[in-house]
Amino acid sequence: MKILMLSWEYPPRVVGGISKVVHDLSHRLIKDGHDVTVITYRDGNVPYVENDEGVMVHRVDNFMISSNNFIDWIMQLNFNMIARAGEIIAKDGNFDVIHAHDWLVAYAAKTLKQAYSTPLVATIHATEAGRNSGIQGETQKYINDTEWLLTYEASEVIVNSNYMRSELQRLFGLPFEKINIVPNGVNLNLFDGVEKDYDFRRQYAMDNEKIILFMGRLVYEKGVQNLIAAMPKILQNYHDAKLIIAGKGGMIDELRNQVKFLGIENKVYFTGHLSQKNVQKMYKCADISVFPSTYEPFGIVALEAMLSGTPVVVSDIGGLNEIVDHGVNGMKSYAGNPNSLADSILSLLFDHKLCDEITKNAKAKVKAEYNWNKIAQDTHFTYQKAICETVAERQAKQNAQEAAEKHKSKSNEITNLLSFKKRQAFA
Fold it and tell me: What global pTM score does this model have?
């Protein structure tokens, strides 16, 4: 197949989880013999056109004029995506399918689908209502409506968990059979050759301290505030513990103030943004990885931690709830409950046998269920469904037009016959 991916982020631009998903899925599809073209936003001094190990990446700038707000910025980006796609199609021919990732590329996807009669598949990675516990203002309503529009225009919709399927049915009234569950995956070779680096570890914690690691964006729905709130209870029961918070986000100042208020500055370390190499090192150095989200459609970071051999603690919500079986391949806590979070973390700190059992089961599950080979095959099957539906729709439309023409022709015959008989009667 010739596949066109539309995404507002692609490495080296990484805003959230979409970048990694589009990258890994595209490369797996290339290995399966497909042609993949990605159109994305150009951030920094990266090349406009790049052959990324077989994946053709086309990056576009935004308009030279400043946008009034983020919504206008996204709309301008979509215009430029459409223009670049038109240039590619004029040169190399049409695509077999368009795969749009989230509302940020909805208008480009809709326009290209209609202009070139190309089947459209949309992946909804998260919803605005889910991120914000409902729709609060005009901007959120606009994004929510754009998400609905994308799912309406798509022949098939992909989500990464049962939780997300239920959310889309509830929010947008999508038919059950239109929503395909294809989980995100992780590169199974991610930690090959990566060993625990003690010199690296000593930059963040002493040798006697157990590292409790949070990896992710510092935003409300990731629940970092609840993990910090759990630290006093953890430290009261297990003094040699250190919380490492790796990532950046809008809540950084608020979280620092929370740490200061609790008087635990010497037990919490904010690393800021880490390179991919240092992310791998950090997972290997951690004793426990914690993902206390209050909203999480899937949770790729949990898969990475599980693959690294680090026991995980997650909230019992969203995709995380489906990935982890409590006490089997990880530990769960009640979402938004620091006391529950502390209990699960302490269980692992005091039980080394449980940690060993959990990490062994977690690795096995990731390798069996979340490898990109299987995920790419499931995605390709969804493409085939979309193409078949589009062909069926075209045939139905053609049949309807032919039937209408036939009916019109018959009506004209009858009209002409009646007119002839009327003329004969007058004659």
Answer: 0.80
